[in-house]
Amino acid sequence: MDDEQQSLFNRRNFLKLVTTVPALGAIAALVSPLLRFLKPNVERFQIYAPTAQDVARGEAISVAKLSEVAKPWDFKYFVFSQKYPQYTPEGFKAASVPGVVIRLPSKLKLYDTASGRGPLSWVRGIGKTPKVTETDVVVFSRICPHLGCIFNYVADYREVTSGYGGFVPPPNRRHALMACPCHLSIYDPADSQLPGRVLSGPAPRPPRTFLFEIQGDDIVVTDVEPGGIAKKKDAGGMA
Amino acid sequence: MVADLAGRTRDWFRERREKLDLFDETLVARQENPIYLLGPLLYYFWLITVATGLLLMIWYEPTTTGAYSSIERIQHDVPLGWLIRGLHKYGADALITVIFLRLWRMYFLAEYKKPGELSWMLAFLGLVLGMISGITGYLLIWNQRAFWAAKVVLTTPVYFDELPIIGSLKFGSMIAYVFLGGPAIGQATITRFYALHFGISLVLLILVEVLFFRTRRKRMNMSFLPIVLFTAMLVVITLILPAESGRRADPTRTPLPILSDWYFLALYQYVKYTPPLWAGLGPGLLINFGMLVPFLDRSRGRRPLERPFFFVVGVLAVIYFLAFTALILFNIAVIDRDPFVIMLITLAILSAAFIWELRYRRKQRQRPPAQPAAPARAAAAHS
């Protein structure tokens, strides 16, 4: 093959390349709306992100009476109902977010009104201000922030050791704990700095909390901390 | 240069396609050895699963409210429903078992080496698709185990959003949302899983049929005896251990411990040990490693001891698969201690294997060119 033929060949290949790239681009452009077929609630041309519509919304309910959780380590399970979009012909569906109300033996500061810091700092993000800032009642979502299983409140820490993979809590944490059956994340609901601190296991952050008010004898839950499963806690929490 | 590369790729594929061996194992000289029944058995169990699956579709109701009851009705009320469901379940289990055993055989006998690269890659892809088919089909029962298995598996991709650079595209959440049909498991999930469970086998069956048609390969390269024997095996197992239904799915209660089909258990144990991003990345890397093994293993020999490093890696994989499965069944996981110990042991063994490989190669180089015997493969079987 002499030089001229060689360059001819190259030219042909170059032209092939020049036509292939836009052709592939055009095919991709034509096929890309199919993603909206699979996930109908995304905005046009913003095919990747979960949209604001995917956020579930709930209604305020009374989840427990103060007298029901009168003594330290008393607890009560409840279910908070939320609506979330489903990609079915019916549209929205109510889902339940299981939660737990726990009475702690001592008071914690959940929110510092002046600086806006504390475990409830997420509340500012939804445009509200916590009414209860210092309390011995805490309300957690029982959805494990690891992979979305429902974790349990375990009144006796020895049951955690025997049933959840053999974790032995340090002496200062030998009280009721929360433990996830799926991948054995263990949480301490009474940690003074960060209620729900991860003691062991793969969970990336403490469980999400509920915003609540005390109305007479009722503990009324109004909102649940937004964010799906996973996702690290935003600035202001962990450190 | 592009044309050259394209040409070479085409040649490479043609050569491998001619020697492609998906089910019939005709490239093997020693066909009387029962380990070469695994190919035809794979196809046979697959057909059983597809046929019984079609029958189950007649009675199954893919709704969150009706799924569990319809399975119960198939099991207890529909005439011979227990048999069809049992054959479907145990046929699928047998299928996955056969794929695993076949992959291990291909690995330890180095059948993935030239010209078997494509056969190995397709066999490995078969395992991945089989497992996806397994987990999508599993949810259709709508019992506790299946519900939480699906939840855990499909939440894992969400953590891909934490990856640097590509994470900001949120494609991890996208994967989860597209499969779940929304942010949580519900009716949309069951519909989508039903479609996938059926679709994977349908599409693959058509492709395989086209392959049979074009290459005139045998469909089932085995005699009548094993067919009767293994069919009887499935029926007997169905009689002794009727397929279970478990408890109806309850989205507000997670069972302790959560389990899944047996072939996912080792992965479940792994997920307990790792930070959540690695729960998704680990299996992904494993799949990539599996697919690329033919190109990573540059050793010359085919016998296990002629390629020490990859032999040790294979043995390690088998041991970890069995050990992790045992650990999760006994619900043992000390998360502060185990990963450290396991990493240390793995690194030590891999380093030892590497040194073994180096020493073996040095010895080979010093030895005069007395080549080891050719592998037991029929050279002219498919020319």
Describe the structure.
The complex is a heterodimer of chains A (239) and B (383). By secondary structure, chain A is of the alpha+beta class. Chain A folds into two domains: 3-31; 53-224, Rieske Iron-sulfur Protein (3-layer Sandwich), CATH 2.102.10. Chain A is built from four helices and eleven strands; from the N terminus they run H-H-E-E-E-E-H-E-E-H-E-E-E-E-E. In chain A, the strands form three sheets. Chain A has a four-stranded antiparallel sheet with strand order 1-3-4-5, with no helix packed on it. A four-stranded antiparallel sheet of chain A has the order 6-7-8-9. In chain A, a hairpin with a 6-residue loop joins strand 7 (177-179) and strand 8 (186-188). Chain A starts with a helix and ends in a 15-residue tail after the last strand. Mean pLDDT of chain A is 80; it is low at 230-239. With 383 residues, chain B is mainly alpha-helical. In chain B, 65% of the residues lie in helices and 0% in strands. Chain B contains 13 helices and no strands. Residues 379-383 of chain B have low confidence and may be disordered. Chain B has a single domain (17-366), classed as Up-down Bundle (Cytochrome Bc1 Complex, Chain C), CATH 1.20.810.10. In chain B, helix 12 (308-329) packs antiparallel against helix 13 (338-366). The longest helix of chain B has 29 residues, at 187-215.
